[in-house]
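Minutes, methods subgroup
Present: GH (chair), OT, SY

1. OT presented the first of two proteins processed in the latest run. Sequence and structure tokens recorded below as shown on screen.
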Amino acid sequence: MSKTYLITGASEGIGLEVARLAAASGAAVLMVARDAAKLEVAANSLSGAIRPQTAAVDLADAAALEAFIAALDGRGYVPDVLVNNAGHGASGAFVDADWAKIDAMLRLNINALARLSHWAAQGMKARRSGAIVNLSAAVATRPTPYFAAYAASKAFVTNLSIAMSSELRAHGVSVSAIHPPAVRTSFGTAGKADLKSTLVHKLFPTVGPVTVARAVMSAVRRRRRSVIIGPVAGIVMGTAPILPRGFDLAFMTLLFKGKRAAA
């Protein structure tokens, strides 16, 4: 029987590439994103024996999320693999940020991810099989001025994932946190995370969404608790516990402040 994948943020970037790899492997894929038109175009671009299903849902809307879960429960649907990829970014000084943007980001990055993880884990535990993969980030291990709320949300993702992994491994369920550096998607553009003017975007090599998608698929196969993608992410996460905090904060400020934030 084919595996089933539920992938959020699947209309572009990492989520789309995960969906592409899963579909090519013969999996039955349920692609979830907010924009129905983009989602349909994305689904039509996939090749596989089973046509992907789509669900246009604003996961940052708690009522819409609960309605989506209720619809899945009504079908008796529990995926073999849940990939929580959907996420927003917000850069700039925290105190100067638009609260509506911060609130929407936290509801998506934290609340929606936790709710879907909790829902899927219950079904997987009862079935004694399954995998949950949560997209975190290399900055999850560091307080990051001018990217503060985003980095803090990814710290939540990493800690939740690793703790869930410990709780669920004996029940046949793996939970993985994926930690990429900057990824070549629309995430860093103006209107989203808006990182184009920052030194972190100018100085450090990025990785492509296909690289991250392959890491996601590998984490499912190998049941890995934590995956760090590439040397930049390895350095960022490996040095976090050993650098003096004052130096670390000054360094992260230099990388993430950017011309926009400095103005």
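2. SY then presented the second protein from the same run.
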Amino acid sequence: MGKLVIKSPGNPVSEVVLKLGEMTIGRHPGCDIVLKNDASVSSKHAVIKTVGRKSVVEDLGSTNGTFVENMRVKQHELRHGETIIIGEHNLVYRDDVVLDAPQFGARTAFPAAPPDVSQEKTRIIRAHAQLFGKEGKDRGKSLPLLKEETVIDNPGKSPARIYRTADGYVLSAQVGPGEPRLNGKPVPPGGQLLTNGDLVEVAGTTYSFLK
């Protein structure tokens, strides 16, 4: 599981291990990660959503914004070594588990936990979401989105990745010529939550997202 190394002015460096699901960040004492004594931090400033080995930081409409490597973001999939900047605080993301991660397709074992609302949502999503080929080599074929991460190959370019989260399915891709597109446009940096009927284009094949 990933973790955050938190560096705040006047305070010793601390670490927080990320848990599956959501962890809120803000000034309010009820947040999972509390950033104290900084008026530029909103009460509930941001949230980190972790699914499997992937963590996404999302701004919660804060006044002063959430930044990753000095770029203001609404939603961003974290990569090892990147720094989240909130007010005067630097939160460095470390994905140390990549050193012993299983091969793609292998099931990752996590400690059992009582079912919660997020898990209930996941079960509902798993039962219905799929990609249906409308044009190209996969025309007429269905691709169920049952995994935490589904990779669609894009020869010579970066693949499209679809992550299953408690809120739905997030499409992530690079931006540029020949890269995957969503509804005829580049996929926004940090990914885009898919809605029913969205068209995903990868390597000359167009898929319809169905829930």
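Chair's summary of item 2: The longest strand covers residues 21-26.
Next meeting: continue with the remaining queue.
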